[in-house]
Design a protein that fits this description.
The protein is of the alpha+beta class. The protein has helices at 8-26, 42-57, 102-117, 144-149, 168-174, 205-209, 247-265, 301-322, 341-355, 369-372, 399-418, 421-427, 430-437, 444-452, 459-470, 475-481, 497-505, 514-531, 544-555, 559-583, and strands spanning 61-64, 70-74, 83-89, 125-131, 192-200, 213-219, 221-230, 234-235, 270-272, 276-279, 285-286, 289-298, 325-334, 337-338, 360-363, 378-383. The protein contains 20 helices and 16 strands. The protein starts with 7 loop residues before the first helix and ends with a helix. The structure holds 1-(2,5-dioxo-2,5-dihydro-1H-imidazol-4-yl)urea. 1-(2,5-dioxo-2,5-dihydro-1H-imidazol-4-yl)urea binds next to helix 17.
């Protein structure tokens, strides 16, 4: 582990440089007095040039890739090492603020500057990318830069045109690129171990929590629907209240339901009716038809689908009660992009160490990480911005927050890049590799098969195969495995990795509570008497009381049922431990 820590003076100098460079970049605009910098414009190329020069000052090799991203590489301890990719975008909306995108690139430069100034080379290389297009301002299609890096430009993108009728292909040529070579911007999966992006929050949560920084859990998935209530228009003076089929009253009823049901569903889900059209729309006519939109977003697709299902069925019920009809159609849908759990943990611990505590929150806005997550694990940090204002010239961040951001970012990257357990696992001797994963579970066949199938392209591939292999387990494996799992409520012996794992997993079991400890001990004994082996349960995330309830429930299982349940718990414990080994 590298011991260097950024001190206050270094962080302060770095933050002041970030602020000054954000001002310098903001001067590169097509509209005097405002900031507008769109993909493949002369201003885009000038910004790339400026950022490229800054990269070179801190020992990075630089290049502009085939879709116009500016890229830089700071070599790792061995040439050609796998890299951690840091980045964000350099394009803007029209009349933009100066931090959206740029802050991520400028803070990444400070991470590398710290390494360079301290003469540090880490196990992994660090690459920085300033993406050419995230916002989609010019061509109406988004993430052209990051989807260049993943090599997933759809064929029809080259033909898309801007407001002046210039196609993407022509714009590439005008900017000195060759449209037939865009595929060469694609990077292969093994080149990067992870992608990190720092971004302004563009929302008010951190400010309200009085925090400079937070960790992103996921970039929200979203659905947009066109909805319609159809009732019966009628004379506002003559139709009695009891026999009306008022489409607007039904819509109003539904809207208040949407608001209250969403608020109680989960704190991080939002739903909005943003437009409402009432027909025929006259003061003296009962509304016969209402067209409205529903926008719903969540960091978890399953929750989004469940809530949406509930809202739509409520709409049907309201319609039925009022004698009107309801229909809807999804016209926009994007899945959530979860951030990698291991990267979230690293970011959380770095942020907590610089600001005392961390906060996890979803991103309501889209980011380059959406595209990058197709190939690499992604992690994001958010920095507070004034009143959450973004996409506006009033966008603003505090230099003191940037100082914290640079510190947390540097700490995270150094921790990740100093060690790469997957490389250790892939390149180590058979014994070294076995030792790394043996504490996950005492089933030698599983461990050996995982080692035999080395090398793995990335941690996801390894986890997937490890999970597949657990499907073959039966009663015999279950009995073997118990060696790595002390009883619940009993302190694990020793300071070996298994004991450390187990202590962490059982940390929510309150061993000071003697009534609970006694009840668990009794339950364990009863279980062992009945099933002839130790009671196994994934303890992580469960309290002692929860576990006790489960233990009592499972005592009523038939032996066959219980074997299935115990095996499932064993799988979960093993895969969680494996995640822990490779997350570092
Ligand atoms: C354990 C353990 O060691 N970790 C965990 O999640 N559960 N032990 C057990 N008997 O279930």
């Amino acid at each position: 582990m590298v011991k260097h820590v950024m001190n206050a003076a270094q962080a302060s100098a770095a933050a002041s440089r970030v602020m000054q460079r954000a001002d310098e970049l903001a001067q590169i605009s097509e509209t005097p007095g405002q900031l507008t910098r769109v993909y493949l414009s002369p201003e885009h190329l000038r910004a790339n040039h400026m950022v490229g020069a800054w990269m070179e000052q801190i020992g990075m090799a630089t290049w502009q890739d085939a879709v116009g991203n500016i890229c830089g590489r700071y070599e790792g301890a061995s040439e050609g090492a796998q890299a951690i990719l840091l980045g964000s975008h350099l394009d803007t909306v029209r009349n933009a603020g100066r931090y959206d995108g740029m802050l991520g690139v400028l803070t990444a430069l400070e991470v590398v500057a710290f390494l360079y100034e301290n003469n540090l080379q880490l196990e992994q290389a660090i690459e920085i990318v300033g993406f050419g297009d995230e916002e989609g301002t010019r061509f109406g299609i988004t993430l052209l830069g990051s989807r260049g890096v993943t090599g997933t430009w759809p064929d029809n993108w080259l033909a898309c045109v801007d407001a002046a009728g210039i196609s993407v292909a022509q714009a590439l040529v005008n900017a000195g690129f060759d449209p037939s070579r865009i595929k060469s911007a694609a990077r292969s999966p093994e080149e990067f171990s992870a992608y990190l992006e720092l971004h302004i929050e563009q929302g008010p949560v951190l400010e309200r929590e009085n925090l400079a920084l937070g960790v992103v859990t996921a970039i929200n998935g979203a659905r947009r629907l066109k909805c319609r209530f159809v009732g019966e228009a009628g004379h506002a003076g003559t139709v009695p209240m009891t026999i009306r089929k008022d489409a607007l009253a039904a819509a109003a009823n539904w809207m208040t339901y949407i608001e209250s049901a969403t608020a109680i569903y989960a704190p991080d889900i939002v739903a909005t009716v943003g437009s409402l059209q009432c027909l025929p729309g006259a003061a003296n006519v009962i509304p016969g038809e209402v067209l409205l939109t529903l926008d719903i977003r969540s960091p978890r697709d399953a929750d989004l689908e469940a809530l949406l299902g509930n809202l739509l069925s409520e709409a049907q019920q309201i319609a039925a009660q009022r004698g009107v009809t309801f229909d809807s159609e999804i016209y926009y849908s994007i899945p959530a992009t979860p951030c990698d759990a291991g990267l979230q943990r690293q970011l959380t611990s770095a942020i907590a160490s610089v600001q005392g505590r961390s906060l996890s929150l979803p991103s309501g806005a889209g980011h380059d990480a959406i595209a990058i997550a197709q190939l690499w694990p992604v992690g994001m940090l958010f920095a507070r911005c004034d009143r959450g204002i973004s996409h506006h010239p009033a966008e603003s961040v505090m230099e003191a927050d940037v100082m914290q951001a640079v510190r947390a970012y540097t700490q995270t990257v150094m921790a990740l890049a100093a060690k790469n357990t997957l490389i250790e696992f892939n390149d180590g001797s058979e014994n070294e590799a076995l030792n790394l994963i043996a504490p996950c579970v005492a089933i030698p066949a599983w461990t050996e098969k995982l080692v035999a199938a080395r090398p793995y392209l990335n941690v996801h591939v390894l986890q997937h195969y490890a999970s597949q292999l657990t499907l073959d387990w039966g009663g015999e494996e279950l009995n073997h495995a118990l060696a790595a799992h002390p009883r619940i409520g009993e302190k694990a012996q020793g300071d070996g990795k298994e004991a450390l794992f187990s202590k962490g997993e059982q940390s929510a079991v309150d061993t000071q509570n003697s009534a609970l400890t006694l009840a668990l001990a009794q339950g364990n004994a009863e279980y062992e008497e009945r099933f002839g082996r130790v009671f196994l349960i994934r303890a992580k995330g469960r309290s002692g009381e929860d576990i006790l309830t489960e233990l009592h429930r499972r005592l009523n299982n038939s032996p066959a049922q219980e074997e299935t349940e115990a095996l499932e718990q064993l799988r979960q414990i093993t895969l969680l431990r494996l995640e822990g080994v490779f997350a570092q």
